[in-house]
Specification:
Helices cover about 35% and strands about 30% of the residues. It is of the alpha/beta class. The longest helix is centred in the middle third of the chain and has 17 residues.
Length: about 300
């Protein structure tokens, strides 16, 4: 088994004339863990639904392994979408939900499901509606991991879980992905929690693509420059400034862009401190409502 590649071309979805996705073009390489990042209302859930074949695009198209997923059983049998709502039959006992998944998912692993249910302490004899929100979320992620679907999408599916349970999910997902590589999409705004898992990042804002990049490359695009305000302003005059803070005569400026050797040497000679910017901070700046100024380069 290998993971599925994803391609969207001018993908647009509208609700009552309001765009949820607006001309989206992106590529998701197979056999990688992709982070789908965005604020609430950015279009993450809509994109996840279209990829899983739950919704037909209004314009453009999406291809999963070169095929259109909507009303395509060949594709949808190989795609698993776990949403925060769970999409579970509330009246059914947990063990019946597992039996249904086993019958529908061609790559389902019963042993793995049992191990994960034990780890998350999900009772199999209880009806889904009797589970706490945290246990429902845990059941959802068990269904997603144990499906071993070539394209598995988790759309904020773990929000009902507490921090220890979420960490258990991340560890279990990474361990099974290492054993059985496939294409995994984690849709979330909990960037700091999942950043260590991600290989590629897609950031959406208002239904549009802000950036798509390998995680290491994205981290390398940001820098924090701290020092005397005049020296910081001079150094960052031609850079894309994401944020500024000032305390007395000292200024801290966050920039987006590569700092070449000449700029680094100039910063050192001016006594400026150059520091990295975390993925969470970059995400906040890139999806903010305003930028301080745009690059003139």
């Amino acid at each position: 088994m290998s993971g599925l590649g994803v391609r969207t071309e001018n993908l647009s979805v509208r609700f009552g004339g309001v765009p949820a996705l607006d001309g989206l073009d992106l590529r998701l390489a197979p056999d990688k863990i992709h982070g789908l990042l965005g604020r609430n209302g950015s279009g993450k859930s809509t994109l996840a639904a279209v990829l899983a074949g739950f919704r037909r695009p209004d314009d453009g198209r999406v291809l999963i392994d070169g095929m259109v997923p909507f009303e395509n059983a060949v594709v949808t049998s190989r795609v698993c979408l776990i949403r925060e709502s769970g999409d579970l039959v509330d009246s059914a006992p947990v063990k019946h939900v597992l039996g249904l998944a086993s019958g529908l998912r061609p790559y389902w692993n019963d042993d793995l499901a049992g191990e994960l249910l034990d780890k998350f302490e999900v009772p199999t004899k209880k009806r889904v509606q009797k589970l706490s929100r945290g246990k429902k979320s845990a059941l959802g992620v068990v269904l997603g991991i144990a499906s071993r679907a070539p394209l598995t999408i988790f759309d904020e599916s773990y929000l009902g879980m507490d921090v220890p349970s979420r960490n258990l999910f991340y560890d279990a997902l990474l361990a099974d992905y290492t054993e059985v590589p496939r294409t995994i999409v984690l849709s979330t705004h909990l960037v700091s929690e999942v950043s260590a898992l991600l290989e590629e990042v897609v950031i959406l804002d208002n239904g549009r693509l802000v950036t798509q990049s390998p995680v290491d490359s994205l981290r390398g695009r940001g820098a924090s420059i701290v020092g005397p305000a005049a020296a910081v302003d001079e150094l960052t005059a031609d850079l894309a400034v994401l944020a500024e803070q000032r305390l007395g005569g000292t200024k801290s400026t966050t920039v987006l862009g590569d700092l070449d050797g000449a700029l680094l040497a100039k910063a050192r000679s001016a006594g400026l401190e150059i520091g990295p910017v975390g993925l969470q901070e970059l995400f906040v700046h890139l999806t903010g409502t305003t930028h301080v100024k745009e690059s003139s380069r």
